[in-house]
Amino acid sequence: MFSRQAVCRRAAAGLSALVQDFGAAASATSGSAADTVATHLHEHDSTATSHLRSSPFAPFPSSWRSVSSASNVLAPALDREVAANTATMSELLAHMGGLHAAARAGGGAVAIARHRSRHKMLPRERIDALIDEGSPFLELSPLAGRGLYGDDDVAGGGIVTGIGKVQGRLVAIVANDATVKGGTYYPITVKKHLRLQEVAAQCRLPCLYLVDSGGANLPRQADVFPDRDHFGRIFYNQARMSAAGIPQIAVVLGSCTAGGAYVPAMADECVIVRGNGTIFLGGPPLVKAATGEDVSAEDLGGADLHCSTSGVTDHYAQDEAHALAIARDIVAHLPLPPTASAAAAGAWQEPLYPGEELRGVVPADARRPFDVRAVLARLLDGSRLDEFKTNYGATLVTGFGSVYGQEVGVVANNGVLFSAAAQKGAHFVQLCAQRGVPLLFLQNITGFMVGRAAEAGGIAKDGAKMVRAVANADVPKVTVVIGGSFGAGNYGMCGRAYSPHFMYMWPNARIGVMGGEQAAGVLAQVEAEKHRRKGKQWAPEEEAKFRAAMTAAYDTQARPEYASARLWDDGCIDPADTRQVVGLSLAAATANVPRISTNSRFGPFRF
Fold it and tell me: What are the CoA carboxyltransferase N-terminal domain coordinates in residue numbering (predicted)?
């Protein structure tokens, strides 16, 4: 197991220590493309403005590294069109960078100025002040809400969520952005908040809520309030996680109105700021309407009232900096997590190839195949992979490797899934589940094979074996879509419906029930049959127009920005940062969970 006493304020072991102080020694990504990473890892530095700051990961000194046999070292050649591939990826990264810059701008200059005039920090500034200096912060779903409500823009979904380190341990953070619609909860805000709680529950991470919200968005209350996974689920989750021993900590930095008042009320410990922090079920206007009473927000639900009279809050802060310092002290006194046993007993070797080359691995033409081992060689420790069933089901690459010393079972597409590949995948996933080894899925899949021979060979039942194995593998899972994610292949490769702990997409990735051209072809056949039944002739130019419209619609809905806006993933990442993002995700997923699964009732079946 890894231990770095020099960078741990407290005795934290295992992979939770892995992300403590991976600072400037790492080879930082450079250039404008590096500034466009969607899900960002950044060093804690309030003066930095780029979305991706210097890489938070650094290797141990060379004397700490271990080197094993070279027989399992990957050495695949890069695609012959690497320069063109890199140029195409750079264009995609620049496009995504513009979208993320707009999301980081929150409610705009006027709203930000008004916010600052109240002596309030912006949400990301609050997070920077909360997390350990120099430690990474993994922001999730920064494009949430983009384009969902027409001209009613909800930048970032009106909330910032992610994982960072406080007092040497990983925590889940929710920070309301009051510059966006007063911090009120739109449907996507609720969804993003619940997603972070889901991550926290899966990974058993303490939750810190930086509260500054006007509560539910009243014009959209029908889509925010009544259903199972609406606003009330936030407080249900708080209660359940607290009962399960997952700490719930709230810091009230602004308004906390109506149902939102239950965020601090249901927290295990709560801090409130004098002057700006308020908590009440009904604000002054509602009190006036209901009782005729005139009362100020401070008198109705301010820090003095709740810390000295009502007892709703536990800690009185003079200002935001004081409040966040108190929150850090609270975390410092939480029980230490159990010692993680999943880290390797020693240290790791950096990949033999630079991560920046991942920008040129995937062909610009998505129809051209490439060897996924070229990705793995730039992702895994020492570029080493112990392949499982190398010569069987060759369109699926499976095997054991490690990322920052954390052992992982790799399941990576290398073509369409035939029956043999599906059987191989099911066997390997069961093997990892039996051993308690986390799974890393690299998706680039058009689906399972179709056709008479495939159906006769049992592709449906073989695909079902893989889907069943993935659904029941009770180990941490991280999914990265590096190309296509289509049809049932998405299911077998641990898509969102299969609850991976984290799921990310590259800018070139596409996701959908099928590709645009294929969907247009199927729908055109259906439409042509309708015309025939009516005795009408479908003009070729009308058919062409129909196909073009369907292709465009499917292609738009398959893009990563469309997916991220709807939280189909946890963010779109720069390929060059895949190793760092996966490393921190694995650290979060394994820090507080036992290595060996206790829910496996059978050993692996050999199909």
Answer: 89-346
Beta bridge partners of 41: 138
Q: Note the pLDDT tens digit of each residue in 454-492.
A: 999 999 999 999 999 999 999 999 999 999 999 999 999
Integer CA distances (angstroms), 451 to 395, 418, 448, 456, in order: 17, 11, 10, 9
Strand partners, 185: 216
Q: What amino acid occupies position 453?
A: A
Higher pLDDT, 344 or 417: 417
Compute the average pLDDT of residues 217-223. 93
DSSP letters, 53-120, are -S-S--PPPGGG-----GGGB--PPPPTTHHHHHHHHHHHHHHHHHHHHHHHTTT-HHHHHHHHHTT-
Paired sense of beta strands 41-42 and 137-140, if any: antiparallel
Dihedrals phi, psi of 488, to nearest 5 degrees: -65, -15
DSSP string, 402-432: EETTEEEEEEEE-S-B-HHHHHHHHHHHHHH
> In terms of Cα–Cα distance, which of 72, 252, 284 is closest to 174?
252
- Please give the Cα distance from 562 to 558 (Å, whole number): 7
Indicate whether this model's pTM tops 0.90.
no
Number of residues written out for the chain: 607
Q: Interior CA angle at 479 toward 590 and 230, to 5°?
A: 85
Q: How many CA atoms within 13 Å lie on the side-chain side of 239? A: 7
Structural domains in the chain? 75-104+345-509+572-601 (3.90.226.10), 106-333 (3.90.226.10), 514-558 (no CATH)
b (16+ CB within 10 A) / e for 241-267: beeeebbbbbbbbbbbbbbbbbbbbbb
Distances (CA, A) of 489 to 328, 342, 482, 597: 43, 29, 13, 25
438 torsion bin: left (phi>0), alpha (psi -120 to 50), beta (else): beta
State the DSSP code for 249.
E
Query: What residues contact 257, with CB distance under 8 A and at least 6 apart?
Result: 213, 214, 215, 278, 280, 281, 283
Model confidence band, residue 5 (pLDDT cutoffs 50, 70, 90): very low
Contacts of 521 (CB under 8 A, 6+ apart): 547
Name the DSSP class of 275.
T
Range list of β-strands (E), 78-206: 137-140, 159-166, 169-176
Kindly tell me if the per-residue pLDDT of 119 is higher than 90. Answer: yes
Instruction: Please name the residues in contact with 289: beta carbons below 8 A apart, sequence gap of 6 or more.
Output: none
Mean pLDDT of 269-281: 96
DSSP 76: P
Phi, psi for 267 (deg, rounded to 5):
-75, 155
